[in-house]
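Exercise 7b. Backbone tokens:
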């Protein structure tokens, strides 16, 4: 079928809305009519080259929610009319990682940037001229229709608004899990969240719900600091340097047992700064993405050893998507998790560049594309 999509044809150029051709679902695949797509910083990394895809053109988007329109052979967990969230990392349930309880490291993840469907290693999406299109993490939610492997979809409660559900494809479980799973925040601990955009605000809520004593939010944008206080932060600061004395005084200079880094782009030169507010035997969780080509890190190795600190990487917040996405949405439904309040603005597909400009300039916690018939 013919539809539209937000395409990148080369680095450091704006998104272009183009006609694309979406193929029918093959074995173990489903076709989805998309209703909403979250605008995550990781898709901006496609534009800069920080996340290198297998080729161009690229169809962006890895957060989204919609309705199943068609199922391929062998699909048993979904039927037409189901509401689903797209999980940016698939969960096959069969590989060693899935069986070991780390579904966020599913073996299908090795193919996320190659563009070829995991079912048969062919391309499902083509341009109007017939060029194969590389969809972000085998999804491409910046289009009102998608064909994906069943491992990339999670069935959800039909009462959940699509714009809320969309954020659970990446940002909410990534942030919440960075605190509660990767960070293992315990009641009474002191926590710092570095960067309070969409992922950081979810991490902040995770720390609060886990029972943290103090939650210090650190972000250079004043408006975001104000919002962080509304989501449960006890204090907010522009920089680590500004926060240092206040964190020290509040913790009797024990500093934070957990520091969760959710900035839009991680630079190696900043790692030791984040560790400077991490307590002895504490953990600094790196959730934000750095450029895949960067391999230089500033780190005082002696202090890392002598103070027994931990530097923990985290992808998808350590989430089990098939379990955690419905659970997080049930928390939203019960009023325990604020997701709707994180959506600063909704956009049309043709406003995508405006939406990313708003994100880069600190005007959004999370922007969402809401699809209409005009987009299809």
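Sequence design result:
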């Amino acid at each position: 079928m013919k539809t539209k999509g937000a395409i990148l044809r080369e680095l450091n150029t704006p998104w272009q809305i183009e006609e694309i051709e979406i193929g029918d679902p093959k074995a173990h695949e489903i076709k989805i009519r998309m209703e909403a797509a979250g605008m995550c910083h990781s898709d901006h990394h496609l534009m800069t080259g920080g996340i290198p895809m297998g080729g161009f053109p690229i169809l962006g988007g890895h957060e989204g929610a919609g309705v199943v329109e068609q199922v391929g052979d062998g699909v048993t967990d979904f039927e037409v009319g189901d509401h689903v969230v797209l999980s940016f990392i698939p969960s096959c349930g069969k590989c060693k990682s899935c069986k070991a309880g780390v579904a966020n490291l599913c073996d299908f993840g090795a193919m996320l940037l190659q563009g070829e469907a995991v079912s048969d290693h062919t391309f499902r999406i083509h341009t109007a001229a017939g060029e194969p299109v590389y969809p972000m993490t085998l999804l491409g939610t910046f289009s009102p229709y998608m064909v994906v492997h069943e491992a990339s979809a999670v069935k959800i409660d039909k009462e959940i608004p699509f714009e809320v559900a969309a954020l659970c494809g990446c940002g909410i479980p990534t942030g919440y899990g960075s605190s509660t799973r990767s960070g293992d925040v315990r009641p009474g601990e002191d926590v710092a969240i570095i960067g309070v955009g969409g992922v950081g605000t979810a991490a902040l809520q995770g720390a609060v719900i886990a029972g943290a004593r103090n939650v210090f939010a650190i972000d250079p944008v004043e408006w975001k600091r104000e919002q962080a206080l509304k989501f449960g932060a006890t204090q907010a600061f522009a920089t680590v340097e500004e926060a240092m004395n206040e964190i020290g005084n509040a913790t009797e200079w024990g500093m934070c047992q957990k520091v969760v880094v959710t900035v839009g782009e991680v630079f190696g030169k900043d790692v030791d700064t984040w560790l400077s507010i991490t307590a002895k035997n504490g953990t600094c969780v790196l959730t934000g993405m750095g450029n895949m080509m960067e391999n230089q890190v500033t780190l005082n190795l002696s202090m890392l050893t002598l103070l027994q600190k931990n530097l923990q990487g985290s992808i998808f917040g350590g989430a089990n998507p098939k379990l955690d996405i419905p659970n997080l949405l049930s928390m939203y439904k019960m009023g325990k998790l604020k997701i709707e309040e994180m959506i600063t603005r909704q956009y049309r597909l043709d406003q995508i560049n405006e939406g990313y400009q708003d994100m880069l300039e600190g005007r959004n916690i999370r922007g969402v594309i809401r699809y209409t018939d005009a987009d299809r």
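Instructor comment: Residues 355 and 367 are 6 Å apart (CA to CA). The first strand starts at residue 2 and ends at 8.
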